[in-house]
Specification:
The protein is mainly beta and about 550 residues long. The chain contains four helices and 32 strands. The two termini are about 35 Å apart.
Amino acid sequence: MFILCLLVSLISSIDVTAIAVSRSEYPLSQGAAHGPSTRLTIGNAVIGPDGFVRPATVVNGMFPGPLIAAQKGDLFNIEVVNQLSDESMFLQTSVHWHGISQNRSNYADGTAFVTQCPITQNHSFLHTFTAQNQTGTFWYHSHFSSQYCDGLRGALIIYDPDDPLAHMYDVDDETTVISLADWYHVVSPKLLGVPSIADSMLINGLGRFVGGPPSALAVINVTPGKRYRLRLIQMSCQSDVKFSIDGHSLTVIEADGQPTEPLVVDQLQILAGQRYSVVLVADQSVRNYWIRGLPNTPGANYIGGVNSAILRYQGAPPFNPVTVALPSTNPLQETNLHALGSPGVPGTPGYGNADIQLDLEVTVKAPDFQFYINGTTFGNTTLGNRTVPVLLQILSGARQATELLPAGSVYVLEPNKVVEVTIGMQSAIGGPHPIHLHGHAFDVVQSAGSSAFNYVNPVRRDVVSAGHPGQRTVIRFVTDNSGPWFLHCHIDWHLAAGFGVVFAESPADTPAYVDPVPAEWDRLCPIYDNQPNFTLPHIPNIQI
């Protein structure tokens, strides 16, 4: 288990009680979207997004955090400032830019103990990177233990002025970004190592819990006749969600920042970390319709407006919908998704024909219910009294898997090779398991639960379901991005229990590939290890 779990000893013993809050207290003002040069201040606040008041970890005083919006080719300069103070939760932080490949900027990936040391209280770090030609729907979240379950998560969108599918929609702005996030009434450090079920599902930061007050629900406003690109971002810590809108079909045009051939569905199962863009045509009668986000929680339903939001046509009265959920007849099947333009799978078609074959077998062992990949659980990266993230180890001269920590969890890959990874669920309970690879999008040549292979035109994405025990998934990518990249389950409780490995791509090339590493990055580990009483100098030229 990550060394971060040692922080559990700091947790306050005071429990939070349920209190119904007025709408004047929540939601907190979301404000305007931020540009690619901005400052994210990580702090604490007491909020009640589902009517239950609890302390949380917020961004610029908000949950979800502010939308970061950019245009294709923009340079990002994002200063993350740690002003955390609530000792019932984690006081260190790191922020990962989920789906951004960080080509030549591995140090900016924001993954604690893999690409950097955490940012300590009253310190900051400036993440400077370019997403190069990437466009689409991304997000950011804490990558420090289970911290993002306490609220540190937000949307990041890169718009494409030359989107080849732009002819399919009329509206694509901050009003059409939809976040889905499970929410817990207990602070996350208390839930580590404990089987837990989310108390509510929030849509755009609002929701209700069973037995709770009739809190306000999110409203998505549409104009009759308009076509809307809805960007769905699944920010949950555990729950997967079946998303639908009563009376409307949805046309999928993007999966995880990768454009897809348009596919009409009436429901999408979305796992933690996954994103989809869907086109909704406002062609139904003027009224209110339920937006539904049903989690895979036992007994989950829509009674009393839980797991719901509202689609409101212009001219409809401000009342709750009376539409009825009908059984899905055309749900999304991943095998029906295809990358736009059929870019093709790298390497020679056929299972086992890649340059590098990796088999990752996942098991869970009692009594501590740690996850193991090929017999090893992901451990810590400490050497004596020093913290040495994998990137720091490589920059310090380590090159072989036997030299890299955590022992047994780092796989060294040669450069410019086609890698085929088979992820097999042996006894990995708690699925379906969303598997995320940093640094790459990959081709899904076999989806979990399917016996078919597709080496011609599969979906390309960065989070894939590895399914349940007895199932497997197979992915392919090319090692063209030197550096250490995390592959892990995006159920945060499983990651904290060791469900992850690191792919160290061409470590001999990494020092030159990521040069120059910022001086501020070099200072993160000494500060984290020594906790000195000084603050990094203010970093100028950041516009809010």
